[in-house]
Amino acid sequence: MNKEIEEENAERSRKSFNHASDPTVHKESGSEQASLISLDEVDLNRFRVPSFAASFPGLIYSKLAKWIADEDIKSKLKRKPADEQKLSAEDARIAKRRCMNGQKMVPWVVGVPWQATFPQNLFDTELCIAVPLPFFLNKNLNILNVEASTLATTKTNPNPGETKGNVILDIEKLSMRFGKELSLSCSQWTEAAGNMYLFQKERDEEGTSEAHSAWYNDHFCFYTSQDTKDELYDAWKADELKFRQEHWAKYREYDAARYYQAYKLSEKQQEMMVDIRSGRSSSSTPDCLICAERGHDATQHADSTTPIKFKSDGKSVWAKYTDHNLLSPDNRIICISWNLRGDRGHPCSHKDERVHLCSFCGSKHHNTFSWICRSRPAN
């Protein structure tokens, strides 16, 4: 009797399942009370397919759902050892030890210059902050590649629309090792400039005719093409840095006229530097246009943050020397040539760009080395 009831229940269960699966073919619905536990193995296995099971949410009761979950766990446990066995003993050793293939070494070729390579963290950093030029010296690029995983890094603030910042090189810390801007010699600047151009060339977007790197080519080539670049390096290197940083921040096109005007001004500044160093009294030792002492020139006090006083009376000095210029307290540029030679020198051509004021006291009635407001230092 029990067997007959079980068989009848199973038949009702199949009808109910078949009707739910395809009501067009299986029109008889069976009994709503039939237990799906009587599904055969083929039907049960179909429920292990997620897309199939999702089609019959009303037919999946708790016991059937538990069976599906258990079968899925068993399947995953069976697959794991099989996946691990796919690796041979040699493959496992290579993967674990990260073994190196010496057959991939690149031969040295005599006559082929050293080619700079740029690590990914350099590109990531350039997106957030302008990488200083000293980082592109050959020796520093080598360090960036060899020690990439151990170099100091920092995290940026998230960009608009993002929740996480980016990890970039810690420029401030690494600059202590690689050198800061304006610390390079002219030959080092030339080396680093060439590498920075190659770096920017790799950042060109396809289909833009290398317009991005073309700016850096024009920028650097302007200075390398100047016949007087070596002797005027100290005068123009600050302008080069200013133009490069302005471009990174504002991304404006190259303007050759600005470069030409700035370079001409650098030539004038260099002439003033020569005047400062050649400014002398009856002795062959230079006198300072700032503190009136003998034995050094005004560049000794360049960008000084320490208060300077005249030794003769203890009063604070009047002028200052900043960014290659002799300046008044209100930052007007003082004419050095007039202070050295007075009205006896060649007529000045600077017009209103510079003022004729004594750098000792600010008077417009006498020049500095007339020694009217200060006593001439003893020989």
Give me some keywords for this one:
single chain; 379 residues; mainly alpha; 4 domains; two-stranded antiparallel ribbon; two-stranded antiparallel sheet; 13 helices; 44% helix; elongated
- How helical, in percent, are the residues? 40-55%
The fraction of residues assigned to DSSP E strands is: under 5%
> Uncertain regions: pLDDT < 50 for 5+ in a row?
32-37
The main pleated sheet reads as:
2 strands, antiparallel
User: Helices and strands, in N-to-C order?
Assistant: HHHHHHHEEHHHHHEEH
Q: Class by helix and strand content? A: mainly alpha
Tell me the distance between the termini. 135 Å
Q: What overall geometry do the principal axes of the alpha carbons give?
A: elongated
Region (Disordered): 1-32
Protein name: Unplaced genomic scaffold K443scaffold_494, whole genome shotgun sequence
Organism: Laccaria amethystina LaAM-08-1
Biased composition (Basic and acidic residues): 1-14
